[in-house]
Amino acid sequence: LKYMYVMAFAVEEINRNSTLLPGVKLGYRIFDSCSRYPWALQHALLLVGGDTQSCNLTTCIIAVKNVNNISVSFPQISYFASCPCLSDRSKFPNFFRTIPSDIYQAWAMAQLAIRFHWTWIGAVIVNNDYGQLAIQVYVFVVTLYQCFYKYHLHIYEAWSTSNDLLQDLVTSKVASGVLGVAIQSSKISGFENYLRNLHPRDTPSYSYFSSSLKHPFTDTSQLRVSYNVYLAVYAAAHALHIFAHNFFFLEKSSLLNFYCFQLLQHLNKVNVTTPQGEMFYFQGADIPAKYDLVNWQNTPEGTLKLVLIGRVDGFDLILNESAIQWSTGSNQVPVSVCSESCPPGTRVATRKGEPVCCFDCIPCAEGEISNTTGSPHCERCPSEFWSDAERTACILRQVDFLSFNETLVCLCIVSFTFFLSSTLSVHPIHLKVRANNSELSFLLLVSLKLCFLCSLVFIGRPSVWACRFQQAAFGISFVLCVSCLLVKTIVVLAVFRSARPAFNLQIINFVIICAVWLSLSPPVPQQDLGFQGSKVTLKCAMASVVGFSLVLGYIGLLACTCLLLAFLARKLPDNFNEAKLITFSMLIFCAVWVAFVPAYVSSPGKYVVAVEIFAILASSYGLLLCIFAPKCFIILLRPEKNTKKHLMAR
Ligand SMILES: *[C@@H]1O[C@H](CO)[C@@H](O)[C@H](O)[C@H]1NC(C)=O
Ligand SMILES: *[C@@H]1O[C@H](CO)[C@@H](O)[C@H](O)[C@H]1NC(C)=O
Ligand SMILES: *[C@@H]1O[C@H](CO)[C@@H](O)[C@H](O)[C@H]1NC(C)=O
């Protein structure tokens, strides 16, 4: 009823206007469709009188939504048909409207969801063109940013200005805090007065309006659809005005018989300023989008009131967030997510078959971090760094080496002390031995002690000098040891009377190799980044593999020669024939160092050094036991065999 009266009001206003359509009086005919499409169609056809050529001054301000499914060729201006489908000029060439296309409304709602970071959204839609198209636009906009899945009741589609809902006490219990996109509200000056001054005399059926009654009918504070009707009438009048102006030479009467398509052309040209000071023109079928953003807030009476919280102007969304009262009653924006975003230190793992906003958070693996919320993946720390306990930052890896306060090192030292003391105890015993080359045995004992001692220099933080010293000490003591044995064997074989020159030669050779290697390309302390972990092993890296191989090879060569010669000499008659012992000791020596290689290669980090120390200790002790244990046995337990007489008897 109100829409009818606003049309009547607009027509009367135009008729009074001396500049718009001067000398022309507009009229109107209103039919009741009774909300039935067939009736609406029938009445629309009645309006054009079956004559599709002559408009008979008719512009149809239509209230029905889908008359356009039937092709009608007179211009129509709708104030309420918002379906985006009607913007299609190829299907609806004669259609205009003063309500924005719902595309903008769906877009605005999607923008709200994005603004409030709602990623878990449900939609309740009307299952028709309106609902389907709106949801398509909505989903399109929202899925550009986040995901759309389920049901969340914070946004209503176009019912946000419904008085029935607002006044309903049941609704108010569940629907406070609703955000709505409403048709823009405007003022029409003089309209309230017009409504209040309606008299039963003029409108016999509606005789109940009095100036004191507060009724939705007389409430003109929020004219939304009514204002669209008002605009529609003015659009038609302006089109007619342009037409009349262009054909001023025509008789007034010929205005009655102009052609529909002519009016159509002039509707396209309408570009006026409304009394509210806004530009009004059609873009195709549509007018530029303008909406109010409203919020349903509780009133003390228990009903709901509409509060303006912002507006939409085309693709701009202007929102006063602090004016919103949410369903919780506070100003806190409600959270709607499927999964809480992943904290730093974890990464997002999508769940198979579920929307992308539903995910699990998986802690980063060791050595990887994520330092932002909702990180899609963990990043590997650079090689000198490792992840902290929280997996949120890369921290410098701790330098690790075999130090003196470790269990393993304690074990090394205990065995070292044991071995050294055994060597020391052998020493005085050995002085009693009556053997021909006791000088060599003495040297062997000394070099064995050196071997034990050199295991100690492998412990501690590797430094430039420590790295060189380790290799030199290790090499020299072992070459001494093996050389002593080799010379002993040579003496047994009686190749030389004195084996001293051979011995000296071996030592000098080795010292040269060692000196060249250590001066040209010595081992240097280096971090072993190959192994993962919060610690990085500092070790002496062999800068020259050739040098290291030469040193080891030299010792190996001596050992093999010694083994071979001792093996050949094992059956020669001799008192205290040491050849057997040397064969045996060399076998043990070689076995230890052959076993050392795989252990060395497969040990992680600093344990490589420990393995080396054990190999040194084990091989030296092997030598000590094999060579000296039988002698000690004789000296301590069978002293009668250690006499000159016994020796001579042999
Ligand atoms: C409407 O007219 C104004 C000038 O009055 C002009 O600035 C504006 O661009 C016109 N709009 C359109 C869509 O033609
Ligand atoms: C936003 O709303 C608050 C609360 O209603 C009001 O005090 C403030 O003036 C508004 N701000 C703007 C810019 O309209
Ligand atoms: C997060 O880590 C990156 C490197 O992975 C770094 O560039 C950035 O500064 C870090 N941000 C914060 C806030 O720590």
From TrEMBL:
Pfam families: 7tm_3, ANF_receptor, NCD3G. Residues 402-650 form the G-protein coupled receptors family 3 profile domain. The chain crosses the membrane at residues 401-420, 440-460, 472-496, 503-521, 541-569, 581-601, 613-637. GO terms for molecular function: G protein-coupled receptor activity. It is found in: Cell membrane. Keywords: Cell membrane, G-protein coupled receptor, Glycoprotein, Membrane, Receptor, Signal, Transducer, Transmembrane, Transmembrane helix. It comes from the Eukaryota. GO terms for cellular component: plasma membrane. It is a multi-pass membrane protein. Belongs to the G-protein coupled receptor 3 family. This is Olfactory receptor C family, r1.
